[in-house]
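Incident log, structure service

09:12 report received: a user says their structure output differs between two submissions of the same chain.
09:20 pulled the input from the user's history:
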Amino acid sequence: SSLNDYAWDIYQKSGDNFVLNKALKWMASVVQDDSNYMYLDTYASLAYKLKDYVLAKEFALKAIEVGSKFGDDISETEKLLQSINKGIK
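09:34 re-ran on a clean worker, output below:
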């Protein structure tokens, strides 16, 4: 989805919480319609950057579960999960 690409670009380049929240809202509707690994990972990443560690962890775990089932490379999401867990402590 081009929306996912755009949201990922925002995740990587923006530190503006207003913009990050907008991207998170877009991705919320995307993952509701199609919960594939890449979309779930983007959603979790955005939530993490916004310091919503509970939401980030929930979706990182979903991404890992879906990715594992379909043979995706989940190593980056596993690293993200480690960072999320550090943030929760």
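09:41 both user submissions now match this output. Likely a transient worker issue. Closing.
09:42 reviewer note: The CA atoms of residues 64 and 83 lie 15 Å apart. Helices lie at 2-13, 17-33, 37-49, 53-70, 75-88.
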